[in-house]
Amino acid sequence: LRVVKFRRTGESSKSDEDVISGEHEIQIEGVRTELEPVELEDGAAVPKEFANPTDDTFMVEDAVEAIGFGKFQWKLSVITGLAWASNYAMEMMILSILAPQLHCEWRLPSWQVALLTSVVFVGMMSSSTLWGNISDQYGRKTGLKISVLWTLYYGILSGFAPVYSWILVLRGLVGFGIGGVPQSVTLYAEFLPMKARAKCILLIEVFWAIGTVFEVLLAVLVMPTLGWRWLLILSALPLLLFAVLCFWLPESARYDVLSGNQEKAIATLKRIATENGAPMPLGKLIVSRQEDRGKMRDLFTPHFRWTTLLLWFIWFSNAFSYYGLVLLTTEFFQAGDVCSISSRRKEVKAKCSLTCEYLTEEDYTDLLWTTLSEFPGVLVTLWIIDRIGRKKTMALSFFVFSFCSLLLFLCVGRNVLTVLLFIARAFISGGFQAAYVYTPEVYPTATRALGLGTCSGMARVGALITPFIAQVMLESSVYLTLVVYSGCCLLAAVASCFLPIETKGRGLQESSHREWGQEMVGRGSHSPGVTRSNSGSQE
């Protein structure tokens, strides 16, 4: 027989403050249908009137920690990973493949090629905050489902674009839908126990790598025979599978508690406990309804102001550098080495557009190798993030990327170039994932989706600008281009060190009320006791 009990100091009864703030308690059923005597380790029995004392209370965070990581979280990991691979990685990776193809086929000047990439990020930038607000107001699941169906619809339509203006508009609408994908991380993080959270969110990067690798392999098979239109259509189809699986996803219990839907929160927690084969905590679930959710002003309270501003710059730098490297990779590979890229671009510009250079089999092979770099990047970040903390992990990732960018000043051959791009992409992708770990941890439930959404929006500003650096400025000076990326990442490394809050070893924050800070200080020093009478151990 297993019993999970919580006793939270100072919460044994309703206080006047609880009544004023609107907090109330509801009874949550335990793993037994009726109270029975509980056996202790020495064989003695506790009278049934003491088996479920009325002053035992817990929060959603406590229940998630008590139930632990199990079958439910494994399923959720696969579904979230599918969203990451199909809706995000594939649609992003296709940009570096589509650009040179349309540049030659439609005889586009370089600024129109850059605009084709940037318009996707314009859509993402304009929608990220909106999707975050929808997720905070109407639920994480609602926002995610709408964004996925939107991306699927316009992703397929873009394959039928007859002229440049059509594909420009349709890819912008695809970007608008992709802006809601980061909310899958919000939903995912709110179901993860603290010890598994960083590792699990980082492992989502594996699905990103799988998605990018799959996109490159799909391009190798489809582009020579069927062309870019079929590549766009086939790349959107995995979203259909995710859209179907979305109906299995439950709404976040943390969101339900904050929105006052305590019955749904209880049902969700019971479902997780049943699937994991773990006991539900006995006692009363603390519910604090908060009507004022998802407000931009909450990101700029004195407690979060500097965190928000620094995170915006960090996310900007991450996307600016990551997508810049993705675009530079195809440019460098087509040139053969860094030093000859400017002269090659001038020669190509002087030739007839029919002599444009399409991506070759060797280009696809090297593109695949640099894409595979994201796997070791995840492993390195996974190893260090719980050892040195989130802030130092992001700072280290930015510094290594900056250093590799400076090494590209040397006239290295193709093999060394591939190695440097491999290392740079490994670390910048790991730093990106570290930001995805840190951001949901630092904001409370009431503004978590909005905080992540605004950060994602700032990232799209960086991604919006980067094509004009990686594709247009590159024609004028390859060295100036590398200085811009290296300098930006050095500043981002400094910004990471100056973040005021380190979230390593800290639970997700439930409320943005003023008393939240005092509550979490107490909880950060010691977690509620979880007594399992069959093991007698404390978790």
TrEMBL record:
<keyword id="KW-0770">Synapse</keyword>
<feature type="transmembrane region" description="Helical">
    <location>
        <begin position="482"/>
        <end position="501"/>
    </location>
</feature>
<dbReference type="GO" id="GO:0030672">
    <property type="term" value="C:synaptic vesicle membrane"/>
</dbReference>
<dbReference type="InterPro" id="IPR036259">
    <property type="entry name" value="MFS_trans_sf"/>
</dbReference>
<feature type="domain" description="Major facilitator superfamily (MFS) profile">
    <location>
        <begin position="77"/>
        <end position="504"/>
    </location>
</feature>
<feature type="transmembrane region" description="Helical">
    <location>
        <begin position="416"/>
        <end position="438"/>
    </location>
</feature>
<feature type="compositionally biased region" description="Polar residues">
    <location>
        <begin position="528"/>
        <end position="539"/>
    </location>
</feature>
<feature type="transmembrane region" description="Helical">
    <location>
        <begin position="76"/>
        <end position="99"/>
    </location>
</feature>
<feature type="transmembrane region" description="Helical">
    <location>
        <begin position="303"/>
        <end position="323"/>
    </location>
</feature>
<dbReference type="InterPro" id="IPR005828">
    <property type="entry name" value="MFS_sugar_transport-like"/>
</dbReference>
<dbReference type="InterPro" id="IPR011701">
    <property type="entry name" value="MFS"/>
</dbReference>
<keyword id="KW-0968">Cytoplasmic vesicle</keyword>
<keyword id="KW-0472">Membrane</keyword>
<keyword id="KW-0813">Transport</keyword>
<feature type="transmembrane region" description="Helical">
    <location>
        <begin position="111"/>
        <end position="134"/>
    </location>
</feature>
<dbReference type="Pfam" id="PF00083">
    <property type="entry name" value="Sugar_tr"/>
</dbReference>
<protein>
    <recommendedName>
        <fullName>Synaptic vesicle 2-related protein</fullName>
    </recommendedName>
</protein>
<feature type="region of interest" description="Disordered">
    <location>
        <begin position="510"/>
        <end position="539"/>
    </location>
</feature>
<feature type="transmembrane region" description="Helical">
    <location>
        <begin position="228"/>
        <end position="249"/>
    </location>
</feature>
<comment type="similarity">
    <text>Belongs to the major facilitator superfamily.</text>
</comment>
<dbReference type="Pfam" id="PF07690">
    <property type="entry name" value="MFS_1"/>
</dbReference>
<dbReference type="GO" id="GO:0022857">
    <property type="term" value="F:transmembrane transporter activity"/>
</dbReference>
<feature type="transmembrane region" description="Helical">
    <location>
        <begin position="393"/>
        <end position="410"/>
    </location>
</feature>
<dbReference type="InterPro" id="IPR005829">
    <property type="entry name" value="Sugar_transporter_CS"/>
</dbReference>
<feature type="transmembrane region" description="Helical">
    <location>
        <begin position="201"/>
        <end position="222"/>
    </location>
</feature>
<keyword id="KW-0812">Transmembrane</keyword>
<feature type="transmembrane region" description="Helical">
    <location>
        <begin position="146"/>
        <end position="167"/>
    </location>
</feature>
<feature type="transmembrane region" description="Helical">
    <location>
        <begin position="450"/>
        <end position="470"/>
    </location>
</feature>
<keyword id="KW-1133">Transmembrane helix</keyword>
<dbReference type="InterPro" id="IPR020846">
    <property type="entry name" value="MFS_dom"/>
</dbReference>
<dbReference type="InterPro" id="IPR047969">
    <property type="entry name" value="SVOP-like_MFS_dom"/>
</dbReference>
